[in-house]
Amino acid sequence: MTPQDTAGRWDSIVADVGSDQQAFKGVPWGKPMMWVFLLSDTFIFGCFLVSYMTVRMSTTVPWPNPSEVFSLTMFGKNVPLLLIAIMTFVLISSSGTMALAVNFGYRRDRKLTFILLVVTAALGATFVGMQAFEWSKLISEGARPWANPWGAAQFGSAFFMITGFHGTHVTIGVIFLLIVAAKVRRGDLDHERPGFLTGRKGNYEIVEIMGLYWHFVDLVWVFIFAFFYLW
What we know:
With 231 residues, the chain is mostly helical. It has one domain (30-229): Cytochrome c oxidase, subunit III, four-helix bundle (Four Helix Bundle (Hemerythrin (Met), subunit A)), CATH 1.20.120. Helix content is 75%, strand content 3%. The chain has eight helices and two strands. It has helices at 3-25, 30-58, 66-69, 82-106, 110-140, 154-186, 188-191, 205-229; strands spanning 71-74, 77-80. Strands 1-2 form a two-stranded antiparallel sheet. A hairpin with a 2-residue loop joins strand 1 (71-74) and strand 2 (77-80). Helix 2 runs antiparallel to helix 6 and helix 6 packs antiparallel against helix 8 (205-229). The longest helix has 33 residues, at 154-186. The N and C termini lie far apart (61 Å).
């Protein structure tokens, strides 16, 4: 191999590395940092769900029937998974309002962006409120992290761990949505006022970053709903 060939190979390697740097040079730091966080969170939720499936398949004690445990009494009849279905509808609907908030944010429509962020936060808070009702109902019926009256003791620990961890994410998301909504309403994103979660002048990228987080939380719930409530 001639020195020219060797130099050509090194130039190619440097160009490849440099192209990656150039590709991400214009990307705001918040987006890749959020993706890194979401990736790490994916591993955590994945471990929780895999652990749940392992415990459920390996336990020798009968596993409680989710349709019976999570039923509500309506007009004297038990309706299976009614509350869970409403919770899922509310949270999935919030993904739509979040997507619209991002869309109108990049159109610089402060009013609609603010309204949609508040609506998204309200839907998230509604979800958390219904989850709190679900927890209180099961606790009053005897469910605990270490035991439950319907069968395998691991059911309680899996339920409170998985839904509690997800509910914490939703609660944090609601708080940050309200903070971003307040900044949008005050015009902080248009004038680059110094402060928390402001970003570059005239750029609504923080709304999109919040959208990434919110869509992730909604997607995780779809897997929880499928594996925990429907299985």
